[in-house]
Design goal:
Cytochrome Bc1 Complex, Chain A, domain 1; 2 domains; 5-stranded mixed sheet; 11 strands
Amino acid sequence: MLNRTIAPPIKDAVEFELKLPPYQKRILKNGIEVYLVDLGNVDAMMINWIFDAGNSYEKKHGVAAAVSSLLKNGTGKRTAFQINEHFEYYGAYLNRSAQHETAEITLHCLNKYVAELLPVVSELVTDSVFPDEELDIYKKNSQQRLQVSLKKSDFVAGRLIESYLYGLEHPYGKYSSMEDYQQLQREDLLAFYKSFYQNGACRIIAAGKLPDNLVPLLDQWFGGLSLRVPAGEQPSFPIKPAAQRKYDVVNDPNGVQGSIRIARNFPNRHHPDFQRVQVLNNVFGGYFGSRLMANIREEKGYTYGIYSYLLNNIQESGLLISTEAGKEVCAAAIQEVYNEMESLRNEPIDEEELQMARNFAIGTVLGDLDGPFHVAGRWKNIILNGLDSDYFEKGIEIVKTITPDELQELAKAYLNPEDFYELTVI
């Protein structure tokens, strides 16, 4: 009999054997690839249509985001109200989003209603009309949101730091202005929609407790469309970082808080150091127990929180440190960031600290494997970045085996202040 007076032994997270549950791959009549993550006991599911339709493909700034936002705002058969009412009737949620390379339509629903919902999603892909009145509302709302956001130092800092890293002409570095929204025309949206949705490159990921007839239904409603298989390579743009490295921007002369961004360019996930630097970043500023947090938040009290992370870009990543602090201590907070970089370059991490960072990394992965939607998210990242199928397992092995000496060498290579852009917005 189990003796409940004796506590079970505590296991470090790194002792768990982790495997990413596999997907099943199907091909529709038109060649579109469907990735199926059939997991879970709840009668719910998600379908994700991923189009090569991000802002990397637009000729006029703001068109990709506008098309994505207005997909649900009217077709040749239904008004925006009727479309929303249809999804709400079945308890479903349809989201749209546009990133740099891709744009996505994501459906969450009960699996028993998928047959009633797929025809309307297909209608959005083939017959959205982008009414002038809906576009006018979108333009006014976007301008109002931008006007409010531009008063916030963190919003301004987020826009500017990426423009320094990549250049204003690069999709990662350009940002919207009032004039960009004002100049949007319905013809611009229709042309983009025709090229990158009606005749666009697409792949589909489905996850959850999937019904047996899902693939035939997808073939019925999407296999006969003029969609095409992605070419395999995303468009590449010249990266033109700013010549100046340090910026101080006054956004609100009466502001009491400054937004600090310190960043450098960094290779994408195909670089052999990417996953290794993710471990270094955990120690540096990647979680609540990191060095940046212990020093700048806990010891100095300059901020409520400070984090560092690698940007989620396909062509090229970046290493970014982000925090907000009182304007009178911004300079001191920045100096402490550089002090922590110096410490990591000069002294190996002790085993206890490294073990803590390992446990955090593996614990995060354990959470991400809890449920089919998280598993699908892991596979989506691998698929969109064109990574090998064993990328996940290689990353786990790196977390478990990387040494303090290896991390010190990585710090010497990638944590040098002269390689970073420094921005303070007050």
